[in-house]
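Sanity check. The docking grid for adenosine-5'-triphosphate depends on where the pocket ends up, so I'm generating a full predicted complex first rather than guessing from homology. Inputs follow.
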Amino acid sequence: MSEGGIVGEFFSLKEEADADVLTMQVGDFYEFFADDAELVGDVLDLNVSQKSSHGSSYPMAGVPLSELTPYMKQLVERGYRVAIADQYETANGHAREISRVVTPGTLLETTDDDAQYLAGIVRVDDGYGLAFADVTTGRFLVSSVSGPDADSKALTELYRFDPAEVLPGPEIRNDDSFLEAVRERTNASLSLHDANAFAPGKAKHVTREQFGTEALSSIGLDSDGNAPNAEVRAAGAVLSYVEETGAGVLGSMTRLQSYHADDHVELDATTQRNLELTETMHGDRNGSLFDTVDHTKTSAGRRLLKEWLQRPRRSLDLLRERQSNVSAFAESALAREEIRETLGDTYDLERLASKAVSGSADANDLLRIRDSLAVLPAVADSIANAPSLSSSPLAELVARADRAQAERLREELAEALADDPPKTVTQGGLFRRGYDDELDDIIDQHEENLEWFDTLASREKSRTGISHLQVDRNKTDGYYLQVGKSDTDKVPEEYEAVKTLKNSERYVTDELREREREILRLEERRGELEYELFGQLRARIADHAELMQDVGRTLAELDTLASLAVHAVENGWVRPELADSGFDIEQGRHPVVEQTTEFVPNDLRMDDEREFLIVTGPNMSGKSTYMRQVALITLLSQVGSFVPAREARVGLVDGIFTRVGALDELAQGRSTFMVEMQELSNILHSASEDSLVILDEVGRGTATYDGISIAWAATEYLHNEVRAKTLFATHYHELTTLADHLPRVANVHVAADERDGDVTFLRTVRDGPTNRSYGIHVADLAGVPVPVVERSRDVLDKLRQEKAIEAKGGASSEPVQAVFDLGSGEFQQSGEENEQGDQPDDEQKINPETEAVLSELSGVEVADVSPIELMSKVQEWQKRLDDE
Ligand SMILES: Nc1ncnc2c1ncn2[C@@H]1O[C@H](COP(=O)(O)OP(=O)(O)OP(=O)(O)O)[C@@H](O)[C@H]1O
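Predicted complex below; grid placement will be based on this.
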């Protein structure tokens, strides 16, 4: 392959670039060559031509300089790392050098509202250190997880942040199963960053340089003399990666925030998916909780609302403050709508701050900063003028950002920039008069020269007596005097002819040339000076990145709180009373289902004596909906939101764990039952007595008796050992009898009405068990052939007669040894029914026909059967028993 020329230069730059694709500036174009040209031809649909260089021919594709961004963005969003080599002038011509490698986690040009995190993760002996940076907003967070389930906690954090790019530390790089799990839970591309960047000494140095020693020690991360914490190693690696890829945004990372897993309600990845927080199980945004409650006016507000839903909090003070703010907004409709309208005029200040820092903000971006800063005093006034807002913590919230400094910054921009500046920053026309003396002087001179040209024609006409004379300008000839053919004889001698046209002649004069040169000189100087002044202004604004972030964050928070209030008011939600534990929800509803259905509200009561609810009820009756509704009301309460209920008292939880039917796991190569058991195992390990556990049909994926046994044992364990607040929906009615033996277990059921063979779902949750599934009824309704339906009824009856299960009380309660007889549906204390031993021997068993009669007897719903039918049943049973 040829080594010389443009293509040779491209190849050698490509060799040094740590990137999938290189684009190189050649004059006014960014060019791609060889394989890279083929790739962009395919992926971006660019035209590919051939370029001859040193005797060979290479595919070539290119885009004009100003159009690179959208193409580069598309490539990066598809997971490619794109290196950009820029051309610059040198004493002997020009040279080219890679100025930036754009990766999914360092793409500044995103137009997506969502946060875009770059994550670093480091494994240490007892856990993981994590760092998350959003280069588009300057957010930078670190955390660590430890303990026996550190793996799953680390993966949960990754799922929560859903980073665009992950930098795995040296200890993880070869751990294929961990990396596979990262891939499964996130859409991130994994990038290998220099292992040295994760080294303790280097990482600590970089992190200190960025945030200062004080910031590190204030969050307990500066372990002087010792090896730094794992999160510092992750943070250092992320920072050096941002620096190395050349995004130029380090300056926007103004604040190091550390969070502890305990600050948030634990929501594992499965639960976030099951509860359909930000997308439905089918991957749609529509129909998610976020989509339902989002009424925000700004993209920063939307980002924050999503973050709040994904990271519910545990601090009572913080939640009460948010509640008071939502409440204040809910009560002041007029002021709230005024504020929301004003917020609608803001731009994304956090993102604009990053653009200013990276030097990519143009004059219009700075105007957006100016206009958004102006919103803060306007909303502060609206808050001050509305009594229920000014007496709420909103007054304090809006005072958090330094308003005086924000106003100074706004004024500086207002005084500097023209209202309608051009898109490019090199042309001039950006600044107002009075901003800079030299610039004013240039503009005056420029105007004076333009004026000279404007009046030239009339001056010349009266001086020379030529009537057909005009002054004009075009690209090739510059300024000229144009004289009609009929008047050319009147042309004075200083006129120098430059072009002959059909009906006229063009001339220039020395003075005209001189003036023209002056105009060009002034225009060029103006462009240079404005560019320089603009760079200085942008840098001064960038120095206030932290202030812009504060203001942006404040406005986003107001937007989010107002959005929660709007949803509460429009849907009749109430402020839940937050308590230490337990639930008392009156007329609760499912926040999403209530939007599309005539919803039947339901109550929930759980306390120290009633911590475990077994939820039974026919198929399709609403068990899952009821349990999700409880989980979502709890979650919304810990976001600080109001909740869909008539009245609610919600005890704060440390985690919400769910296990519901798996949808798409088969595609990932694990059996449904395996996934079910992994999820159950995770819950049994992770939940605590302060957690809320939702189990839907545990054990269903295997043989019935295996299933019942597992469900049975899991119930005992959760009740006796974990003591989590649990709702467990099951079709194994056998489990309902546990309520008689485990002190804190209670039964509830979703009622259905069966009349003349028709089932009506009442959707009402009532105390007590139900022993009807109507599963066979649903099969019948679905058109399963009659012989199959009838045979299933027989089989069910038989099955009920066969086995017995033992219930165990917990260590904390009186031990209970009881035997549950599936045939009779009753419990007996063990030994009671059989003096000789644990198992009845064959002789002592009652005969099958008697058992069948007993079973039918126990299955009769007396209230549902007419007296005549009942009498004929009894007669039939007597006859069958007599026949034995
Ligand atoms: N309280 C309610 N008010 C109105 N509609 C409801 C209510 N609860 C549930 N539904 C509706 O009933 C349907 C079935 O609900 P759900 O899936 O919760 O039943 P299920 O008892 O869990 O069923 P299965 O046991 O078959 O899984 C859903 O379409 C849901 O929208």
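Relevant for the grid: Residues 117-263 form a domain with the Nucleotidyltransferase; domain 5 fold (CATH 3.30.420.110).
Also worth noting: The pocket of adenosine-5'-triphosphate is lined by residues 593, 597, 599-600, 602, 617, 619-625, 763 (CB under 6 Å).
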